[in-house]
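Quick one, tokens below. Sequence please?
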């Protein structure tokens, strides 16, 4: 019996009756007051949530409301803070600007204030819209990003929403009504054409939004052609997703759940490494029965689940939370992959944690898990020049320093080269760090500046030097 047949025979998890959380029902900013549990909160708190939801994206589904959020622990519950807007997510002055505009009630003014505030929140961090977008002849390929030689990111147009939105999302600007802020690919053809032209690309990372909001047949249009011999250089297909948290029913009960599993299995059987790059911020996301059933079913297809998340104040700023999350993941057969530093965008001032503290939490959490849980690298900053990891804090000839290294670099030659920054208790991002040991600039600075000015083309690094 093949495992496809086994899969068809295995009965679905028995889930009690058709409870509301198993029908996909979603609420956006305008429908906040339609959520029963929100209506029970004090008026002032509801107003504050609407103020923030006028600036930052908000979307939540019934499953998250009913099964993940602990409504006896508001506002401290980490799952509540993961999806529901909080007053502190805007600066006091921006909050006041929006609150005043709302009290006056002029729709046009509200839109203008929202747009102004968003512009101040660094909507496109790390050169995503300029430096990373490749070209075919002279045409910009809007749905593709290619920053690191081995890996191409693809943003399918059908996958540019999520089942719910995280309040800290670094791609928040993609979800605001203004379509010019959004990436999207019109055609799978662009993607396939680009991959054919780049034999040094080994990994495709489908991302969004969340590609798993797509119907299986759409996903298949992008992925099945990769089984042709001309795509043999594409060894790994990664799919970035929060669906295992926000809508695990995708793999268990959705009408095309079994088709999706068969698609993943087909790719894996044909020799591709298929990985769900799952986003988990807290062990609580791994606890529901349907979440565990989804994990079990995905793993049965031969798909590897790797996990990643940023360290966030108010949500998971605690070594015990990370240790328990990593231990649970290992137990369930998931592979911890990255701990990220909260990015320099959106509600960063609410979520950011000093780099020193991020490193302490990483270290304390690592110390609490076995080697199998120590596969997560970090804390890592996805900054303009590359992914920079804080390896530790040390002292060299009496000077206290951060020891850093590139996990990924715009120039592959930067990878794994240690470098040093002056110790700084407050710094939360790479651009706040200064070179240590009397150096005037970091070793990569001149080259990175030249890339930003267009003096060196990204294409230069996207082929192996032979
Ligand atoms: C992290 C990342 C990748 C993947 O890097 P790996 O080290 O292979 O996981 C690719 N592209 C971008 C833009 C990234 O941020």
């Amino acid at each position: 019996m093949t495992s496809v047949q086994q899969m068809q025979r295995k009965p679905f998890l028995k889930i009690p009756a058709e409870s509301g959380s198993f029908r996909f029902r979603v609420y956006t900013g305008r429908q906040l007051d339609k959520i029963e549990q929100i209506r029970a909160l004090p008026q002032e708190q509801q107003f504050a949530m609407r103020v923030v939801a006028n600036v930052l994206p908000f979307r939540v589904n019934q499953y998250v409301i009913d099964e993940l959020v602990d409504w006896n622990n508001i506002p401290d519950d980490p799952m509540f803070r993961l999806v529901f807007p909080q007053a502190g997510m805007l600066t006091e002055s921006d909050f006041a600007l929006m609150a005043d505009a709302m009290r006056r009630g002029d729709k046009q003014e509200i839109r203008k204030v929202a747009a102004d505030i968003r512009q101040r929140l660094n909507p496109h961090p790390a050169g995503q819209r300029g430096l990373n977008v490749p070209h075919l002849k002279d045409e910009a390929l809007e749905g593709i990003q290619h920053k690191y030689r081995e890996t191409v990111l693809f943003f399918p147009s059908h996958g540019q929403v999520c089942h719910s939105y995280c309040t800290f999302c670094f791609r928040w600007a993609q979800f605001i009504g203004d379509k010019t802020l959004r990436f999207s690919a019109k055609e799978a053809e662009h993607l396939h054409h680009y991959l054919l032209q780049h034999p040094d690309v080994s990994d495709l990372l489908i991302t969004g939004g969340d590609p798993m909001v797509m119907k299986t047949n759409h996903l298949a249009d992008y992925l099945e052609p990769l089984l042709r011999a001309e795509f043999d250089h594409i060894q790994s297909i990664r799919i970035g997703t929060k669906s295992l948290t926000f809508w695990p029913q995708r793999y268990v009960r959705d009408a095309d759940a079994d088709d999706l599993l068969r698609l993943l299995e087909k790719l894996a059987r044909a020799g591709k490494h298929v990985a769900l790059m799952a986003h988990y911020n807290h062990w609580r996301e791994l606890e529901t029965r349907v979440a565990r059933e989804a994990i079990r079913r995905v793993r049965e297809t031969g798909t590897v689940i790797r996990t990643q998340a940023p360290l966030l104040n108010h949500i998971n700023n605690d070594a015990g939370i990370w240790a328990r999350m990593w231990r649970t993941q290992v137990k369930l057969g998931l592979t911890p992959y990255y701990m990220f530093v909260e990015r320099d965008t959106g509600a960063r001032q609410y979520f950011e944690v000093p780099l020193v503290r991020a490193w302490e939490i990483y270290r304390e959490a690592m110390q609490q898990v076995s080697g199998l849980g120590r596969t997560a690298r970090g804390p890592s900053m996805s900054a303009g020049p590359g992914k920079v990891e804080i390896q530790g804090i040390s002292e060299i000839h009496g000077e206290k320093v951060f020891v850093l290294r590139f996990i990924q670099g715009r120039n592959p030659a930067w990878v794994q080269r240690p470098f040093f920054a002056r110790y700084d208790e407050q710094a939360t991002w790479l651009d706040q760090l200064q070179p240590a040991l009397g150096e005037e600039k970091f070793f990569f600075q001149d080259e990175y500046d030249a890339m930003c000015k267009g003096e060196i083309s990204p294409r230069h690094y996207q082929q192996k030097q032979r």
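Residues 145, 147-148, 151, 153, 205, 382, 387, 407-408 surround pyridoxal-5'-phosphate (CB under 6 Å). Residues 268 and 302 are 6 Å apart (CA to CA).
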